Amino acid sequence: MGCAGSTPAEGDVILENAKKLQKPKPWKHTQQITHAQLKQMRDEFWDTAPHYGGQKEIWDALRAAAEADLDLARAIIDSAGIIIPNADMTLCYDERGAKYELPKYVLSEPTNLIRDG
């Protein structure tokens, strides 16, 4: 029997988590923003994220996964050993149990994004 609250077993759980990976559900920003504003928000988050704790290598892998298509993102998550209890990647853990929280705006575009042109 496993202990309640114990860390998931490595291989199977990580692979299962990567398989269920998906983009976050549609969401709306508090105000309409442009692609440039969204990019700036994302860049600011990724530039400061390692200061919140965790390993820089995991933050780098999370950024690569967030910016990739789902198949590549699954491969990145799997190879980095990242555990994702939520399929949308808003909450992740590394193999040491460090927590990584990602805002939806780095994972997908808001429904009220102002289209260029």
If you had to describe this structure to a student in words, what would you say it looks like?
This is Ubiquitin domain-containing protein. Residues 19-116 form the DC-UbP/UBTD2 N-terminal domain. This protein is mainly alpha-helical. 40% of the residues lie in helices and 9% in strands. It is built from four helices and four strands, in the order αβαααβββ. The protein has helices at residues 10-19, 35-48, 56-67, 70-80; strands at residues 33-34, 91-93, 99-101, 113-114. A two-stranded parallel ribbon has the order 1-4. Strands 2-3 form a two-stranded antiparallel sheet. Helix 1 (10-19) packs antiparallel against helix 4 and helix 3 (56-67) packs antiparallel against helix 4. It is globular. The chain starts with 9 loop residues before the first helix and ends with a strand. Mean pLDDT is 84; it is low at 1-15.
Order of helices and strands: HEHHHEEE
Number of helices: 4
Give, in spatial order, the strands making up the sheet with the most strands.
Answer: 1-4
Count the E strands: 4
**Rg (C-alpha, Å):** 15 Å
Protein name: Ubiquitin domain-containing protein
InterPro entries: DC-UbP/UBTD2_N, DC-UbP/UBTD2_N_sf, UBTD1/2
Domain DC-UbP/UBTD2 N-terminal: 19-116
Strand and helix layout:
Layout: H1 10-19, E1 33-34, H2 35-48, H3 56-67, H4 70-80, E2 91-93, E3 99-101, E4 113-114
Parallel strand pairs: 1-4
Antiparallel strand pairs: 2-3
